[in-house]
Amino acid sequence: MSEAPGRRQAVRISDVARAAGVSKTLVSYALNDRPGVKESTRAHIVETAQAMGWTPSMRARALSASRAYAIGLVFQTSPEALASDQYFTSLMAGLQSVLSTSQYSLVTEVVDSAEAEAVAYRRLALDGRVDGMVIADLRADDPRFGLVREAGLAYVSLGRPPEQAGMPVLVYDETQAIADVVAHLAERGHTRIAHVAGPQVNDAAKVRREQYQKHLRRHGLPDSAWVASDYTAGGGREATTRLLEGDPQPTAIVYANDLMAIAGMSVIHSRGLRVPEDISIVGWDDITVSQYLHPALSTVTQHPFDDGRLAAQLLLEAIDGKEFADPVWTPNPRFVPRASTGRVGTGQAGAGPASAGA
Question: What is the DSSP letter of 30?
Fold first, then answer.
């Protein structure tokens, strides 16, 4: 429908935010001359708004101070997979530990496709249900950054986004942990080291697989047999079965998370094989139960609860208009050797007494 003669459609703060490539909160702060905005950014926003014909109104000024007092987190996975993934439950607990002491709440949704994810993002923004989003588990050509820009929302990214937009970004480096895993197994005589990787549409999973292959080559070892899986126990069981049916059979398997590693250990035991006497096992995440298994699971420890706390703190600052020029580094993952890794052909555990319960 065309506009009535003589009437001009009002330019909204969300329109300016989209055109300027920033959040609605940042536009509000800049146009209302509030602190916390770099002068160069304020000038860019004001220039964009003026070019679009934006004019302030009393109603707009009143609405600029209104908030949903909520942040959003949308998972593209199944509810069953989410329920069994301690990484994400710990991340949410960390987020909630900060939000519970503020006026903010956490709004979560679980969707099963990229299309449903886009709908969820737009609904949360258009309904005014959230002031910002947490973006985790980054993917190649991740569409979510375009969605938050389109919606004019603040966000915090757990991993490097396609471009820096003044929003907080949490990063860490897995390189040393992966190098330590490969060195630990190579020093114990393993030459057939297989890998149960995460989904290869996931940036971190793809990079981790490439890192494993690179460090194997540094030790003069062949590229590993590998299977992409989905981080679930069922996926770990299926991937382990495939690897055990290969020829030659691996002497060690490294997994993309502890849940798949634990499921893989059950498959190994069901075939009359022993861990670590016949096959060594390494997980990733260091979930609570890992150190209490028999044998205790060698794994890589991460800090999802602490990451969640920091992500919430930084996102609240971004919602208040603070800009972030540089990534925020968090503690790097660290390899923890335990009893599930041993020397080839001897069954000798690869960890000392002190590390078995570390």
Answer: H
